[in-house]
Design a protein that fits this description.
With about 140 residues, chain A is α+β, with helices and mostly antiparallel strands. Chain A has five helices and four strands; from the N terminus they run ααββαααββ. In chain A, about 40% of the residues lie in helices and about 20% in strands. Chain A has a four-stranded antiparallel β-sheet. Chain B is built from two helices and four strands. The chains are: A alpha+beta (about 140), B alpha+beta (about 90).
Amino acid sequence: MLEERRRILNMVAEGKISAADADGLLAVMATKTPPPVTEVKPAAPSPKFLRVQVEEHDGDNSKLNIRVPLNLIRAGVRLAALLPTGLHGQINKALKENGVDFDVSQVKPENLEDLVEHLAELTVDVDGGKGDKLRIYCE
Amino acid sequence: MKLPPALARLDYGARRFWLPVFLLWPLMLLLFALTFFAGVIALALMPKSTFQGLGRFLAGLYEMICASRGTQIDVDASERRISLTLH
């Protein structure tokens, strides 16, 4: 930037360009903005497990801690995709009867990586009234 | 090569047991072979697509069993702790 400025001033001193031209060039230089520096963040290590922790404080302070490999979820979704389409309705009905309004046919292997990627960013914390706690996250 | 879980670690209180799950592999192989031969018989009676579906289902089931490695279940009650880990 300084080098260019010096060159313009030298050209004025040598009479190659007028002061008005130099002023225009310097104005153009001033408006030029350097390219934005993008901060490259190192990629976060991909999670391998889904962790479910339940703490119950109803007298015996019991704890449940389950670690499920994400590969197992991947394999499960792939296996579910092989189920005959006729079964999807029955599964959806059974899920709805148990309070889960979910369409199994919407989970497809091609959406699998998106699902796992979003699971990686998921943390569910539920605090119960009696001090019971539920935590679901990926690690 | 993907392999099913070979060992299971069971912690019961202060005791630790290593269960040789690999001893079940021949049984699993036998079950898969029986299902395969049932599929071959079914091939003679049903359309080809059904057999292909069965093959894909068995491969998916095997993949799921292999992916269960690393699963860990801990139950920590007030007096005793039970933990099961698949290796």
